[in-house]
Design brief:
single chain, 206 residues, Methane Monooxygenase Hydroxylase, Chain G, domain 1, disordered N terminus
C-alpha cells in the first residue's frame, strides 16, 4: 500500500514543484506588445494627414491591445511558478515582463498624447519622423523574434547552434537601436533649426 501511495504521489509532487512553464506566456505577451506597437505606423499616417477621425480609431485599437497585453501580464504574474526548478530566475522573468509591458505602455501614451493635443508635426521633419518610427517598430519586431526563441534556447540548455541564432538576433537588435539613436538626433537637430517658428508649447511636446 505504501509503495502504491508513493508511486501515485511522487509524480504529482514533482509536477507541482516544476509548475507551468512561464516562457510560452511571455512569448504570447511579447507578440501582443508588438501588435500594439506596430499600429503606431497607421496612427502616424493618419496624424500627418490630419485625419483625426482615423487617428482616433487607431488610437482606440492601440489602447485595446495594450489592455489585452496588461491582462496577459497579470495572468503571468499570478501564475508564475514559485517552485525551486524554474528554468531561469523568477526575478529575471519579472524584469523581462516589465520591460515588455513598458513598450506597450509607451505606445499607448504616445498615441493618447498626440490625439489629445491634436499635435501637428512640422512638414520639415515628417519624413524623418516616419523613418525613425519604422526603425523603432523594427526594434520591437526584432525583440519579439528573439523572445520567441526562448523555448528552444531552454531546451538546448543554452548551448549549441540555438545560442548563436539568439546572439545574432540580439546583435541585430543592438544595431537597430543604434540606428534609431542616430535618427533621433537628426530629427532633434532639424527641430532646433525651426523651433523659433513654432509655438513654444508645441516645441516642448515635440
Amino acid at each position: 500500500m505504501c509503495l502504491l501511495y508513493c508511486t501515485i504521489m511522487i509524480p504529482s509532487s514533482i509536477l507541482k514543484l516544476f509548475g507551468r512553464s512561464p516562457i510560452s506566456p511571455l512569448e504570447k505577451h511579447m507578440e501582443k506588445v508588438y501588435e500594439c506597437v506596430s499600429k503606431l505606423l497607421a496612427f502616424f499616417d493618419a496624424v500627418l494627414s490630419q485625419n483625426w477621425e482615423q487617428a482616433e480609431q487607431v488610437q482606440q485599437n492601440i489602447s485595446n491591445l495594450e489592455q489585452e497585453a496588461d491582462t496577459l501580464k497579470r495572468d503571468i504574474r499570478l501564475n508564475l511558478p514559485k517552485g525551486l526548478f524554474l528554468p531561469v530566475s523568477r526575478s529575471d522573468l519579472l524584469e523581462l515582463l516589465t520591460a515588455q509591458d513598458g513598450i506597450a505602455n509607451k505606445a499607448k501614451d504616445i498615441a493618447g498624447l498626440i490625439l489629445g493635443r491634436k499635435m501637428q508635426f512640422p512638414s520639415e521633419i515628417a519624413s524623418q519622423l516616419l523613418e525613425f518610427l519604422k526603425r523603432s517598430i523594427d526594434a520591437a519586431n526584432q525583440a519579439d523574434q528573439a523572445i520567441s526563441e526562448l523555448d528552444d534556447l531552454l531546451e538546448t540548455g543554452f548551448r549549441g547552434s540555438e545560442v548563436k541564432i539568439v546572439a545574432d538576433m540580439l546583435q541585430k537588435l543592438d544595431k537597430i537601436e543604434t540606428e534609431t539613436d542616430v535618427l533621433q538626433k537628426q530629427i532633434r537637430h532639424h527641430l532646433f533649426k525651426i523651433e523659433k517658428n513654432l509655438s513654444p508649447i508645441d516645441v516642448i511636446f515635440l
